[in-house]
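DATA SHEET
Item: assembly model
Revision: 1
Owner: S.N.
Input lines:
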Amino acid sequence: MKIKKPELLAPAGDLEKLKWAIAYGADAVYIGGPSFGLRANAKNFTFEEIEEGCQYAHAKGKRVHVTVNIVLHNQEIGAVKDYLIRLEKCGVDAIIVSDPTIIQMAQTYTQLEIHLSTQQSTLNIEACHFWEEQGVKRIVLGREARKEEIKEIIENTNLEVECFIHGAMCASMSGRCVLSNFLTARDANRGGCSQICRWDFDLYNAQNKLLKGEQPFTFCSKDLSMLKYLPEMIDMGIVSFKIEGRMRSIYYIATVVDVYRKAIDAYCNQKETYAYNKAYENILRNCANRDSVPQFFGGENDENCGYYNGREEVSNQDFLGIVLSYDEKTKLATIEQRNYFKVGDIIEIFGPELHTITYQIHEIYDKEGNPISVVRHPQEIVKIKIPERIYPNNLIRVKKD
Amino acid sequence: MTKIMVIPNSTHIEDFIHNADAFLFGYAGMSMNFIHTVDIEEIKKLNTIIKSKGKQLFIALNKNFHNPELSKVKEIMQILAEIKIDGILYYDVAVLQMKRKYQINIPLIWGAEHFTTNYATINYWHSFGANMAYISGEITKKEILEIKKNTTIPMIVPVFGHLPMFVSERHEVKNYLTHFAIQDTSHFYYMEKEGKKYPVIDNADGTFVYSHFILNGYQEYLEFSKENIDYALCNGQWIDEDVFASILKMFYQKNGSDQEVDDLLGAPTDKGFLYKETVYQVKNYEN
């Protein structure tokens, strides 16, 4: 039996990432414009790039949502109107908003579809009713929402409900943390969050006794991964599944989108025969730099959600290269290297056109066609013999157990 | 005249009730950022004492509520309306929605602590029935005065005490202690970085963190008074009660100075964000 597929909503920090996200199966992307978004450190889009991104997405039947989710200060109020009008002219499908002044302006001066940001930390029906009455079409619920309340909200409102399914988690309730303002003078609610929650601190009790474990005290949370709950979330009627990470790499976005695309399709196309794919879990784990858990959805809120092992920056170490072209006659794929690999490595090649191909590398050639045994230079162009047809922009990762 | 609103450390307010105009308490289990919270019976007693002195009582219901809590919140709002406290400070729009839906006759203070940063959004909430606004501790004096000029509802401006920085449903300290099997049963902690100690609460409602410094806005309070700012908020949490009572007297009687406040505290004070703009502000928008 086929069931209605939810939207798979991917982050895109720039135009290139937007194209990769769409190529790997996103139904929609969310991006930051030149102002008023919460990722001032991301490259973000110019208006021209937003327009180009919208044209590119729309040509493929996809949607573009733009974050306009800062908390306004007085001096910014005057610039909002023109900004929103400009976004509408670019062709964006929706804006993601937390400050209601922006909602009001969008409704007064544009026809933009309004999605309420998770920054509002909305967790209950009464709040949802309020926003519904104000013309909000979709609500991104607070990450603390339990499955029972998500279900109740879907059943008792006409709002579209969007939930995060993968990525980093705030330690705080969204919008209720200004550690960044106080410790680094960077405004957390205006795009400057410096992630103080991932810093280490010494912890003392009220009697000034140092409370010290094997690792220092931190608020650092594990990431979110809802892969195991995907069927339940689809059956509940959640309209949009959101992946966090506008500052993540192309490899990360392609990998995560690819896994969730395939899992969603597998469940929605053939619910009866769907089985949880442990290999997907491993792929997601290997491309991230922190462990992931389902967090609040199942009601858990204990020490298993905390990340106490120190930062391990292993992200993207698995990512070996990008396929630039493939010659069907010689079976040689031209690859741009991203991490060290060598003859004998077992690799996986994946992409939107493929089921994942697993292959042990036997032959590598340099640009001049000379056989080599290792590829150690960043962005080095080499050729690898691959017996099966692969496609430009397929990605290669090292195979792990 | 600017009224002095106080968040006390306990319900023992006798020592400074004469040096305050209004009190703000958190409701037990329904509020965030309060060391000492109160239930209905305590509120009734407080209301009698406070009203007998001609002062005001406000209660915070400033959690982000989950569905199962809504009926209880409604019930509390109705009781608070019946006993005629002076207003409810809320964060979650569910409180405003329930006031409208069930026609509960009680004034509301929009107190979404880090979102109350501009006059347009204050006016927005006023149009939906908010009667007062609790202003963010992360904006400048100039911005506060701009808000005053461009709004009509009473404003509450923090001028003294530790400032709230972080609210989480997670039990950050308890989880850490459990993970590393460290025995400690207190709810009050400090976390330290580079010599700065940040007060932390981890209780049934989650984890709350406060600024390492005590905001000393005595001089600014005098200026706010001249500009008819409605309420100046003095937060006594984490501060010795005797010291706080002396400082409150100074504010109420307007007979002190920044230095005298500092001397009484003997602890780090700061002007917070009153003169400090945060960076990463919106880039200049150009057509």
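QC remark: Residues 7-305 of chain A form a domain with the TIM Barrel fold (CATH 3.20.20.380).
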